[in-house]
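hi! just following up on the protien thing from before. the input was this:
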Amino acid sequence: MRLTPFHHLALVIPSLFLTVYLLANFPRPPTLPIIHTSLAHLPSSSPSWNVYPEDLYSGGAYANLPLGRVRYWLIGPEDGQRIVLIHGLSIPAIVWKDVAPVLASQGYRVLLYDLYGRGYSDAPEVTYDTTLHTTQLALLMQYVKWDNAFIVGLSMGGGVATAFSAQFPHLVNGKVALIASAGIIESSDISRTAKFMSTPLVQTVSALPPFQHYMRLLANTSKSSEPCETNPIQEIVRLQTAHLPHYNAAVASSLRDGPIRGLHFAFQSLARSGNQVLLIHGTSDKTVPYKYASMIQSLVPQADLVTISDGGHDLTVTHASEVNALLLHFLADEYSYKPLG
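and the predicted 3d structure came back as:
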């Protein structure tokens, strides 16, 4: 009898399955991710302790969460209306130094914290996607026993705030403020250098001990050659880059995988939520160009957009008094929307 291709296949398949059966095995059992240290583990001689003290705000403590320790601060009267402040991509909670104390002085209970991989929070060796950032906040609010709060996000923190409102609507108490908010940035507006530096290959090389040693030497050299007064915001980025073993990887992964892009669905969810929304954006913002404020407003039609003429990206530093006035007005009980249309 002549064997057809079907017969050949019928003879091969059982042998193939038998081979797979004999070789089949489970992969290695799941393990906990590697947790990298924060600024808290730098020696006392490190300038970071002066630039960004661990006790910059009162009421500081650590929450031991599944992916590492998270540094947070609770300031303001315990019975005050609750507000969460979420910082952006690279600068930890020091970016709120001219805003948080003002809100607290006006009777609000303010929760600040460092995102994973920044400042005094540990850096888990995981993908820094949107869910990592939103669940960090949800777990932190559970840890401090907060049922809900007003949510304020800056830059990437605006993306975190928006996604958090979509994923955990019961934890949002009716008001969301987004300052220079990311979340729907197009790839064409991210520099080629940033794209290159955030590639896995570059991050693998930059994680090697010789490279990190070189970065520390470079940072120390550049510091000793600076005659002018230190800018704490710029300095803390430099110190994190040079001394935190997973900071660069955390920032790169957040840029590549995190709440920087693709959150149109979250903004649409925010539009349906019934929350009051405030957008604050500067016309000279080169990090998140001003056009995105209008694009966000088109997705969230009920949002009030306040434009700061000639304002750049770090509005909480350069225009703190204006930001404070806008937030206090927005967070007040009597705040009402402008008429739509």
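The longest helix spans residues 5-23.
The mean pLDDT is 89.
cheers
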